[in-house]
Amino acid sequence: MPLKISLKEYCKRLNTNEFNEVRIGEKIYFVYSEFLHINKIGKIKILFCTSPMHEHGAWTKKQEDTLISSTINEISKSTNFQISIKIHPTSSKKEEYVDLLNKFMYDISLYQKEDLIELINNHDLIIAYGSSTVVL
């Protein structure tokens, strides 16, 4: 069973191998590799994998946008992270996510049809919510 801790506490502990999986809230899972791929600018690379909740009618677009925005805002409070977003390869409309991400003053990469395994291998931390193949 994953340990429930705050994002702040998780980030403090990230430099240890003590945790392999951490549950924050009810649906968000953080999984990180033992070997951090710190990039040239010294940041931990996060891959935020969305779930097509509003596209499949489980949530409204506003609910999903709020979750994504809140997560990005919380992570962006620290300058130790570089965020990338991976959206569903077929269900999600890339334009909707481009519009959402344009509201932020952060440099956020957006992926849709790229190879998920390759993206996971090139990131240190994975965030996912809802039911998603990515958590398998």
Describe the structure.
The chain is 27% helix and 22% strand. The protein has helices at residues 7-13, 61-76, 94-101, 116-121; strands at 3-4, 21-24, 28-32, 44-49, 81-86, 109-111, 125-128. It has a seven-stranded mixed sheet with strand order 1-2-3-7-4-5-6. Mean pLDDT is 75; it is low at 16-36.
What's the SSE blueprint?
Layout: E1 3-4, H1 7-13, E2 21-24, E3 28-32, E4 44-49, H2 61-76, E5 81-86, H3 94-101, E6 109-111, H4 116-121, E7 125-128
Parallel strand pairs: 1-2, 4-5, 4-7, 5-6
Antiparallel strand pairs: 2-3, 3-7
Short description, anyone?
The protein is about 25% helix and about 20% strand.
Biggest sheet character: 7 strands, mixed
Q: What is the N-to-C succession of helices and strands?
A: EHEEEHEHEHE
Return residue spans where pLDDT drops below 50 for at least 5 consecutive residues. Answer: 16-36
- Quickly give the structural class: alpha/beta
- Give the neighbour order of strands across the main sheet: 1-2-3-7-4-5-6
